[in-house]
Amino acid sequence: MVFLVSLALLNGVLIATSRTVNGRLGTHKGAFRASVWNHVVGFAFLSAVLLVLRTWPDVTDTPVAAYAGGVFGALFVAVNSYVFPRLGAMTASVLVISGQVLSAVVIDCVQQGALPTPIRLAGVALVLLGLALPRLRRTRAEKD
User: Fold this and answer.
1) Could you write out the three-class secondary structure of 36-103?
2) Count of beta carbons in the 10 Å neighbourhood of residue 116
3) CA angle (84, 36, 78) in 5-degree steps
4) Whose CB among 81, 84, 91, 133 lies 3.0–4.6 Å from 26's, allowing a Cys bridge?
């Protein structure tokens, strides 16, 4: 379990770093061009890894709907390339995470056919509160 938690944390670091790098590229070349380069380089990297591992995915047994993830992933990278340099890494990351948490609650409700537990709702509320606190602080400072 510690390995999986560490791997997830490392993934978060890599995502934040990737979004920052792509955001900079996006300000110079445009969000969609930055997204294209992200995916071209990613494809080349993953292809090399699969060649080294001597395994290649069998695309014939994959449902067509599963490919929508590629579209969503490309849009995710393009949108992040646009918003990260404009909002800043922290604000953009918290907004992205908040969107992920809210959609995860909805997805779990639909898949499980049940409402989330109170503790999960409290967790969502804390994430959203974390998003709102800097804005509340700024508003209060402007009033003083």
Assistant:
1) HHHHHHHHHHHHHHHHHHCCCCCHHHCCHHHHHHHHHHHHHHHHHHHHHHHHCHHHHHHHHHHHHHHH
2) 16
3) 30
4) 81
Residue ranges of the chain with pLDDT lower than 50? none
Pair 92, 18: CB distance under 8 Å? no
Q: What is the DSSP string of 12-39?
A: HHHHHHHHHHHHHHHHHH-HHHHHHHHH
Rounded to whole angstroms, the Cα distance separating 68 from 71 reads: 5
Residue 95 to residue 131: CA distance in whole angstroms: 7
User: For the whole prediction, is pTM greater than 0.85?
Assistant: no
What's the token pair of residue 64? 């067509």
Residue 18, C-beta contacts closer than 8 angstroms, at least 6 positions apart: 38
Which two tokens mark 37?
């380069």
Q: What gap in Å lies between CA 54 and CA 43, rounded to an integer?
A: 16
